[in-house]
Amino acid sequence: MIGPSHVLGQLAAGMAFHVILELWMDGWGYELSEPAVVTPTGVERLTDLPQELTIRR
Q: Could you tell me if residue 26 is inside a domain?
């Protein structure tokens, strides 16, 4: 719940997000799912999986 002391649209340290991006076309698709948390100096990924693109055929 967002209280009156929070400003909408402003990121703050400790906020966590699960980013899910998808692109689906005829016969192929791409999906990214990445949990992350905002830190005082930027962002921290919450997984240690490689970020390389994996192609499954």
A: yes
